[in-house]
Amino acid sequence: MVDYEAFLELISQPNYKGKGPIIEAYTNLGNDIDIQVELSEENLKVARQKGLVEKFRLTRHISIKNMHLHDRNGIIKKYDNPEQILKEFYGARLPYYDIRLAKKKTKLELENEILDNKIRFITLVGKKRLISQGRDQKYNH
């Protein structure tokens, strides 16, 4: 993010490439992916013609020529493309996704039970079938 802000700072300089600034101002709105950029109509037309993604360097190329990973047996293996990695690890990772899903389901069921009990409590107090005010503290626990 710091590198990209440095790039935005560079293209907002008055003498950028001898032509003047591309953007008038930019504002980081608090996180890594929310930046507001202000530019003139003329510069917007030029940027659209060249392509906004390329003009503002919104993509980055990553080399996939040297992909060495540990396989499921812990042995270092060279992969030629990302699809090979997915095929290799799909079967190994699938049971862990099921375990994670089961834990998440259990957690949500517990939260649901707690919320149901809160609703039941509020309903009973609202219908005056359960009186919790004015009781001695030792009975409120």
TrEMBL record:
Reaction catalysis annotation: ATP-dependent breakage, passage and rejoining of double-stranded DNA
One GO biological process term: sister chromatid segregation
Top-rank taxon, per record: Eukaryota
Entry's Gene Ontology molecular function annotations: ATP binding; DNA binding; DNA topoisomerase type II (double strand cut, ATP-hydrolyzing) activity
Keyword tags: ATP-binding, DNA-binding, Isomerase, Nucleotide-binding, Topoisomerase
EC number assigned by the record: 5.6.2.2
Topo IIA-type catalytic domain ranges (all copies): 6-133
Requisite cofactors: Mg(2+)
Gene3D superfamilies according to UniProt: 3.30.1360.40, Topoisomerase, domain 3
GO cellular component: nucleus
PANTHER family attached to this UniProt entry: DNA TOPOISOMERASE 2, DNA TOPOISOMERASE/GYRASE
Name the record gives this protein: DNA topoisomerase (ATP-hydrolyzing)
